[in-house]
Inverse folding.
């Protein structure tokens, strides 16, 4: 069997139905093999970064493996931002890169390059992959594919890269003679009974517990089980920003997302609670601040995570750490909890509801109201993506997620240009319509993928929030450089295109809205692609932000002192 045929059959056996890429000379054998099978479809993007982001969106939505490919040299290096995105957001993706023939590699020669477009992708990608390998021996293919899949999906998921020289791709192999990969049959799940009993006993000792739910809950596909857990415990739940859709907006126990730009009421809930149970969140600086010990200093912290490194990066010195796959932990935790033995936290819930009522909408501006109202007209069972910048935060803060909606962003890497190609991947993963939120800056990073949307005529509603500036950077310049807006506004070098003409160029329907009334009258049929431009003022700002006090609940612009004291004494 030809090696690339073997690779495609392996991917099909792992449930992969769609792959994303861009052709090139030394990846053509792989492309040819993909065309032979009806059960897997290849999708041509218009830039390799678009393919990488589409594979990430596909994996995020399916909670399973994504695949992207590119040719050697510039094709492969164009994947790097997407590889980094998958690494920092723990997204399982296999990236296949073409390579020059093995006999054309420079090897140990003291030259920069021997073969045309030869680039050492293993070295380049090693710091942002869980595993990276060039396959020089055809008979290693089965072992290396199994190893790649194992590393991509086991433990804390992430990307792997397989570099395929052209002569290896076209090589013929005896499938029956191939060696298997032995992972040692190691288990990542540790005995939990004692630990869970300790958690249950601990909860009963505290008055104001809270669940902090991270992106790991979404990636693991256990949102429904976590919802049951929240109901059984009867305590408030808050989220990291990528997990803001883990529970519906109108859900009784949903108290918003935390962190620098998080909901004020969510940060106040953490600021007042005495026990935080963290499930699947790495607790990064955007969530807890630079001084980790000052994060909810009065609270005991219990952290559940599969990653030893995450658990080793402590928030509090005395926190309790449980290393386990949350897909295993949550069902086991549920077995130890029933409604009859739960402590009554109704008084604490009443306090949290009072905080939310007092602060919800405190930072609302006209433009944020537009997003909230936009979310009301979006039907259930739709995927939402958002691009990096103000648009991502505004959507996280103001979109009112329904139960069957999902939300995907570039969280850790913060890559502009993510939303549109991720929307493409999400569509093929789910078959559901997608609403893709973008800033006028971010959309231009991968604007070429509008051709993909137009060519395939897929139901993506592309929302462009246009403030005619690079708003997040402009805000930073306003705060730190005395309003010296360099390269971020229309007067200092930045320009956005006429989006109506852009839509016409790609033959995509265009609509423009400026008010809540126009949004409420907007009709989206979820069949045709459409570009919706929401025009807002250039000087829009992003609030709230972490303050200088180190207290997560004391965000800028600071609350009047009397209101702050009133809430803290509830």
């Amino acid at each position: 069997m030809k090696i690339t045929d073997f690779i495609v059959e392996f991917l099909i056996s792992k449930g992969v139905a769609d792959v994303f890429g861009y052709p090139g000379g030394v990846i053509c054998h792989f492309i040819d093999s993909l065309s032979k099978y009806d059960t897997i479809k290849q999708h041509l993007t218009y830039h390799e970064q678009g393919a990488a982001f589409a594979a990430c969106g596909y994996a995020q939505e399916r909670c399973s493996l994504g695949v992207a490919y590119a040719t050697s040299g510039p094709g492969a290096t164009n994947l790097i931002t997407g590889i980094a995105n998958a690494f920092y957001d723990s997204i399982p993706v296999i990236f296949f890169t073409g390579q020059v023939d093995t006999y054309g590699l420079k090897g140990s020669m003291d030259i920069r390059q021997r073969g045309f477009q030869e680039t050492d992708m293993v070295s380049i990608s090693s710091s942002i992959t869980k595993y990276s390998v060039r396959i020089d021996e055809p008979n290693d293919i089965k072992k290396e594919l199994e190893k790649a899949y194992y590393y991509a999906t086991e433990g804390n998921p992430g990307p792997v890269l397989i570099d395929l020289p052209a002569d290896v791709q076209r090589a013929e192999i005896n499938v029956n003679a191939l060696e298997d990969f032995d992972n040692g049959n190691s288990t990542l799940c540790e005995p939990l009974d004692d630990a869970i009993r300790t958690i249950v006993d601990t909860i009963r000792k505290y008055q104001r517990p809270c669940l902090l739910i991270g992106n790991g809950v979404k990636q693991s596909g256990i949102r429904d089980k976590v919802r049951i857990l929240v109901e059984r415990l009867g305590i408030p739940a808050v989220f990291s920003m990528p997990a803001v859709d883990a529970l519906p907006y109108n859900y009784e126990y949903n108290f918003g997302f935390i962190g620098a730009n998080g909901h004020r009421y969510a940060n106040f809930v953490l600021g007042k609670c005495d026990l935080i149970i963290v499930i699947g969140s790495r607790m990064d600086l955007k969530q807890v601040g630079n001084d980790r010990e000052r994060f909810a200093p009065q609270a005991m912290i219990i952290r559940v995570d599969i990653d030893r490194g995450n658990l080793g990066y402590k928030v509090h010195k005395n926190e309790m750490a449980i290393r386990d796959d949350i897909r295993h932990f949550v069902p086991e935790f549920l077995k130890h909890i029933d409604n009859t033995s739960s402590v009554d936290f109704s008084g604490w819930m009443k306090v949290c509801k009072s905080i939310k009522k007092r602060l919800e909408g405190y930072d609302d501006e006209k433009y944020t109201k537009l997003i909230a109202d936009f979310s009301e007209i979006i039907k259930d069972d739709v995927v939402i993506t958002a691009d990096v910048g103000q648009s991502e935060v505004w959507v996280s803060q103001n979109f009112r997620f329904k139960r069957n909606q999902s939300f995907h962003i570039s969280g850790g890497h913060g890559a502009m240009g993510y939303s549109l190609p991720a929307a493409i991947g999400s569509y093929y993963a789910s078959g559901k319509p997608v609403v893709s939120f973008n800033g006028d800056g971010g959309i231009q990073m991968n604007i070429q993928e509008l051709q993909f949307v137009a060519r395939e005529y897929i139901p993506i509603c592309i929302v462009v929030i246009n403030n005619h500036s690079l708003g997040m950077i402009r805000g930073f310049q306003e705060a730190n450089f005395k309003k010296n807006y360099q390269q971020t506004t229309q007067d200092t070098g930045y320009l956005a295109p006429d989006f109506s003409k852009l839509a016409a160029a790609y033959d995509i329907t265009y609509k423009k809205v400026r008010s809540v009334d126009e949004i409420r009258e907007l009709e989206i049929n979820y069949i045709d692609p459409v570009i919706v431009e929401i025009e807002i003022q250039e000087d829009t700002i992003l609030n709230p932000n972490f303050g200088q006090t180190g207290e997560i609940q004391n965000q800028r612009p600071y609350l009047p002192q009397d209101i702050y004291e009133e809430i803290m004494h509830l």
